[in-house]
Amino acid sequence: MKRLCMAALALASSTGAFADSAASPIYGVTIPDGYRQWELVAPAQEADPLNELRVVLGNSAALKAYREGKLPFPDGTVLAKLAWKHEPSPDFKTASIPGAATTVQFMVKDSKKYASTGGWGFGRFINGKPADEAQHQTCFACHQALVKDRDYVFTRLAP
Amino acid sequence: MKRLCMAALALASSTGAFADSAASPIYGVTIPDGYRQWELVAPAQEADPLNELRVVLGNSAALKAYREGKLPFPDGTVLAKLAWKHEPSPDFKTASIPGAATTVQFMVKDSKKYASTGGWGFGRFINGKPADEAQHQTCFACHQALVKDRDYVFTRLAP
């Protein structure tokens, strides 16, 4: 009976039946409670083809490290990137404002758990659901290629 | 002596010698402590000629009203609009990020104090100093002309 149970567990695990459906593939990152109340790091704008307005928010560990200019970020740092399609303001012809939300993405610092990816775990969510494994396989490669010298973090604190 | 003193006071007052140099003309709005830690309302982007990235933050009264969809905003609401020149990201050719800070602007709701301007006081600051009276004379006219039906507030809560 014990052997049967172990086999069932192994099968369930390999098919993802025990995986947390709310967690990102590869990294197991989930959407942190209250991230929408976190402090502003910086906005950004993405031109074609994404055409997005974005804002990066950070938890208190993130903002403390940013303000002190300390790298690497400490374990416990979490960054959240919110993105929306940008659309013309109905009020000002020169302004663009957020349209539909597109993705919410997180970087979670845990230097032991994520030792093989610079200490960072990644999670990309669309309508509250994690994106697929293929999308998550691209995260670290790009951060590593472009901003390894900033502890793999693109966004700088807005002045 | 009393008459002389009153005359001196009147003169000083008329020349602005007793005005708070940190407060906006017309409205007397000052930069609120800790506004940089306030919660995100929404980002925006301004095309030519301003070429700015902007973020509106709000205090807890503001966010509560936004979330509940309640208009008018209650007394005590404060909105902060931070703005930066947008400049190309050094990392991604499709991205724009904050360059130099340009202005920080506030709207303060006090329906008695600011009864003649829809209940809102306005403050526009450049490098921490209030902009001149001429600039402050334009605030309410524009908000009144375009968004009177949204309690004079342009920015909507980002989804």
UniProtKB/TrEMBL annotation, chains A, B:
* Gene3D superfamilies on file: Cytochrome P460
Name the domain of life. Bacteria
Keywords assigned: Signal
Q: Which Pfam families match?
A: Cytochrome_P460 (PF16694)
Stored CDD domains: cyt_P460_Mc-like
Signal peptide interval: 1-19
**Name of the protein:** Cytochrome C oxidase subunit III
Span of domain Cytochrome P460: 32-155
InterPro entries in the record: Cytochrome_P460, Cytochrome_P460_sp
Q: Which organism is it from?
A: Pseudomonas extremorientalis
